């Protein structure tokens, strides 16, 4: 089945796997999903990322992280902001702070995919893809 919004599909797969307390989840591999997964890993929301499959059927196997013996979720919520029907752009002065800096906003900039903190540090704005906390 063709998916128009690969970012929303990725976030939904991670959200569903986390709610079901799965150890890993598979996400179709694209440049955008690789970049978002890299940012989530750098920020400590997910574990290892492994690419599997061949050709068109390439997937990212994303390891989900939990804390404690009762496996409390590290990712509390994932929220898609900019959608194909309504793009949301912010300049460097308007970049959002998610929960006062506890969460992150993932921004697509001219310098690549990065967090709101990194974009603010570099002084660039871009498209606000999603919030994660």
Low-confidence stretches: none
Shape: globular
How many strands, which pairing sense, and closed or not: the largest β-sheet? 5 strands, antiparallel
Counting DSSP E segments of at least 2 residues, the number of strands comes to 10
Structural class: alpha+beta
Over all CA atoms, what is the radius of gyration?
15 Å
Provide a count of the helices.
Answer: 3
Q: Report the sheet-strand fraction.
A: 25-35%
Roughly what percent helix?
10-25%
How confident overall, as mean pLDDT? 96
- Tell me the span between the first and last alpha carbons: 30 Å
Order of helices and strands: HEHEEEEEEEEHE
Verbal overview:
The protein contains 3 helices and 10 strands; from the N terminus they run αβαββββββββαβ. The protein has helices at 6-19, 31-42, 116-122; strands at 24-28, 46-52, 59-64, 66-67, 72-73, 78-80, 89-90, 104-109, 112-115, 126-132. Strands 6, 7, 8, 9 and 10 form a 5-stranded antiparallel β-sheet that branches. Strands 1-3-2 form a 3-stranded antiparallel β-sheet, covered by helices on one side. The longest helix has 14 residues, at 6-19. The protein is globular. The model has no long low-confidence stretch (mean pLDDT 96).
Topology (SSEs and partners):
Layout: H1 6-19, E1 24-28, H2 31-42, E2 46-52, E3 59-64, E4 66-67, E5 72-73, E6 78-80, E7 89-90, E8 104-109, E9 112-115, H3 116-122, E10 126-132
Antiparallel strand pairs: 1-3, 2-3, 4-5, 6-10, 7-10, 8-9, 8-10
